[in-house]
Design brief:
With 58 residues, the protein is an all-alpha fold. It is 50% helix and 0% strand. Helix 2 (27-39) crosses helix 3. The protein is globular.
Length: 58
């Protein structure tokens, strides 16, 4: 049994509701930053950004 999960495939199944004008960042990136931030106990977007910036190479 392969327990490997490809988050990009899962995130690509989520429907995009933003207009093309509001797409500064990829939805997949936003979702992954949110998940990493929650796991890291970040409470604000700034903290989530900082955690991801520190763990970028990880």
């Amino acid at each position: 049994m392969n327990s490997s999960v490809d988050f990009k495939d899962i995130f690509n199944q989520i429907e995009e509701y933003r207009s093309h004008i509001n797409k500064l960042h990829n939805l997949e990136d936003i979702l992954l930053i949110g998940i990493i931030g929650v796991i890291s106990d970040a409470e604000t977007w700034d903290q989530m950004f900082l955690v991801c910036k520190i763990k970028r190479d990880f």
